[in-house]
Amino acid sequence: MPDILLSYAHEDRESVRPIINLLENEGWDVWWDRDIDPGIKWERALEQALMQTKAVFVVWTPNSKNSKWVHKEADIGISKNGFVQVTLGDDSLPEKYAAYQALDLSRWSGRSDISEIASLLRRLSKLV
Predict the structure, then answer these.
(1) Is the dihedral of CA 14, 39, 28, 55 positive or negative?
(2) Most buried of 13, 22, 37, 118, CB within 10 angstroms?
(3) Which of 94, 59, 53, 92 is nearest to 76 (CA)?
(4) Beta carbons of 42 and 33 less than 8 angstroms apart
(5) Strand partners, 30
(6) What is the 3-state secondary structure (H, E, C) of the chain?
(7) Cβ atoms within 10 A of the Cβ of 79, count?
């Protein structure tokens, strides 16, 4: 069972790798679409992961704002009370999610010892 499902736009894959590394270094099992084996129906694998995960971690970028899948995953995270969101490259949020606190990681250097990352990890620890 994944602790955290990472929701992002495929075009941003390289940008989210440092986030995945951070979460995995904390010892959490992070599910993202790279975990789907070839030949598996990806939509079913995603639905199963969404049902099992404790937290949905959404990475908002200009690309992900236009993804119906990222919006769907964010909605499921909210309904499960397991929603966490960050922004990369564009600090604005889709209007529907603007009421939820977000962390801007657009200038994040990858260090885990800064206050914003500590806040993020605290929130995730409460969820998982």
Answers:
(1) positive
(2) 22
(3) 53
(4) yes
(5) 4
(6) CCCEEEECCHHHHHHHHHHHHHHHHCCCCEECHHHCCCCCCHHHHHHHHHHHCCEEEEEECHHHHCCHHHHHHHHHHHHCCCEEEEECCCCCCCHHHCCCCCEECCCCCCCCCCHHHHHHHHHHHHHC
(7) 10
Q: Report the alpha-carbon distance of residue 4 to residue 53 in Å, rounded.
A: 6
Q: Give the angle 53-55-61 at the CA atoms, nearest 5°.
A: 120
DSSP β-bridge partners for residue 59: 86
What is the maximum span of the chain, computed from C-alpha positions, in angstroms? 42
- Could you read off the pLDDT of 58-81 as tens digits, one per residue? 999 999 999 999 999 999 999 999
CA 19 to chain centre: 9
Of 23, 13, 20, the residue nearest 127 (C-alpha): 23
Look at residue 33 and tell me whether its pLDDT is greater than 80: no
Average pLDDT of the segment spanning 103-124: 88
**What pLDDT, on the 0 to 100 scale, is given for residue 47?**
83
